[in-house]
Amino acid sequence: MVSYDSAPPARRPRRTGLPGPVGNNVRVRKLVIGAVATTAVVVVGAVGADFGVAIYAEYRLARSIRTSADLSWDPSVGILGFPFVTQAMDRHYREIEIKASGVDHVVVGKASLEATLHSVDAGESWLIPPNAALPVGKVESRIIIDSTHVGRFMGIPDLLVEAPTRETNDSTGGTTESGISSNRGVVFTGTPRQAGVDARVSIAVDLSVTGPAQTTLKMTATGVLTGPGTADQDVPADKLAAVLAAFSAELPGQKLPFAIAPTSEGARGSDVIIEGIAEGVTVDLDEFRLS
Predict the structure, then answer these.
(1) Do 183 and 167 touch, CB atoms closer than 8 A?
(2) Which H or E run contains 27?
(3) Which of 13, 23, 183, 246 is most solvent-facing, going by the fewest CB within 10 Å?
């Protein structure tokens, strides 16, 4: 008789001590994660360092412009393009943006100045000093006067300036590359009390730059505007001439940054803007503010 109690126990697999497929995958995964993490740290560190050096260069340029142009505070400066370090090493910047808001202006009280410099040779140092004269491939120069200060000059304190109605209703915008409307039929809305009118009216105004030095902004009222997007208020015939005269004026002393000659004028938002564009010129930092 066979006894089942004496049957040998089932054998278990013997461990050989050699790693299996699962162990290999875990080890490879750890190596890959470590390599990726190290690379990420290096990349983030390099980007952070490049960003930090760019901020310092922008700060130094803002201080240089403030000193040379006699500004009350540092303008906003941006040196565009990545990486920055390679541009600094070459002493050549692809694009520099300069913006100064609320600058004292002898005619209108306050104005904003803007300039965009393309393909800029920094000269001997990557940090641009106050006395720098910079050869640039192209410069876009702008002086901006908001509705409030234009209105105060004209004696219409509630003046609002807008782009021509045909352009605000056009999906393409009808503007220049820098967002400036055409100079014909700019909408001026306000209350011309000096003309004996106590209601807000909208007037079409043509803008032009005149004078021997091309520094006087001429605003010529051409007619009353009614309908959507306007004050929709008629003007009595006996007061029309006085109203058009109230919305017409000349603003002298509109010198663009770096003495660039005006090439266009119009509206952007609720501001009046004069812009000049030139190529292949040398700009002096002390000419950023000329008005």
Answers:
(1) no
(2) helix 21-69
(3) 13
